[in-house]
């Protein structure tokens, strides 16, 4: 699994959740986490959540950190939702290490009762995808600046740390798979 943190601003419009986006954009043909910071404005044609789409909701942020995750080992929707929850818990753990207390409801994190994150998971014929976004600044929702993580260097460090932590989780899972004895085998 590979982690790529884009050094330049990059806006999220929802098209990045398409299959093979990391390959088309960066030549990455393996499981990956691509992390970037920029504005977020998801167009209705790229909206995956049908409840949001039916309600004509808007998903936007003036400044958001986005994590685009792609796995090629399965196209199981339940598995990618489990991975999305794992990622949410990992982000919450990293925020706690920085002294930021959040609450979690499913795949959402809240800061002082205000929604801090957006996330969606889905599958295609070839892969599983997750978009996980964290507001850096926002007038309505919770954000990293409000949490004391507003300086560019702090945000960049957080982006790198979380992306690399997710990669380490899967490297560790792969090691565990190769050391576990199957049930019924002596």
Question: What key phrases describe this protein's structure?
Answer:
single chain, 186 residues, alpha+beta, five-stranded mixed β-sheet, 4 helices, 8 strands, 29% strand
Question: Could you describe the 3D structure shown?
Answer:
The protein has 4 helices and 8 strands, in the order E-H-E-H-E-H-E-E-E-E-E-H. The strands form 2 sheets. The chain has a 5-stranded mixed beta sheet with strand order 1-2-3-8-7, covered by helices on one side. A 3-stranded antiparallel beta sheet has the order 4-5-6, with helices on one face. The protein has helices at residues 21-26, 50-54, 77-97, 152-177; strands spanning 2-5, 32-42, 59-71, 103-105, 108-111, 114-115, 117-123, 128-137. The two termini are 32 Å apart. Strand 7 (117-123) and strand 8 (128-137) form a beta hairpin. Helix 3 packs across helix 4 (152-177). It has 186 residues and is α+β, with helices and mostly antiparallel strands. It is 31% helix and 29% strand.
